[in-house]
Specification:
- The structure is a single chain.
- This protein has 73 residues and is an alpha+beta fold.
- It has one domain: Aminopeptidase (3-Layer(aba) Sandwich).
- It is built from 3 helices and 3 strands, in the order αβαββα.
- It has a 3-stranded antiparallel sheet with strand order 1-3-2.
- The longest helix has 11 residues.
- The protein is elongated, with a radius of gyration of 14 Å.
- It starts with a helix and ends with a helix.
Length: 73
């Protein structure tokens, strides 16, 4: 599904960059995004409060030229 979203973003909408945020404890989502070509840009430490705890958020992105490289595989 991620690859199809990126296809629409880059081929149809002609975007240059797609970014997302994912909580650091969501390891399976992070692995999925990295497998799709997303790169971690930075960690927003304790960016959200949920009850008595704080959650950190990874900012990730993929550029059009990076997506084109993964598209061929």
């Amino acid at each position: 599904m991620i690859k199809e979203i990126l296809k629409i973003a880059f081929d149809e909408l002609q975007l240059h960059r797609v970014s997302l945020g994912v909580f650091d404890f969501n390891v399976s989502a992070i692995a999925c995004y990295e497998k799709s070509g997303f790169i971690k840009e930075g960690l927003l430490r304790d960016s959200r409060k949920n009850g008595d705890e704080y959650w950190s958020l990874w900012e990730m992105s993929i550029l059009e030229n990076e997506w084109l490289k993964t598209k061929n595989f």
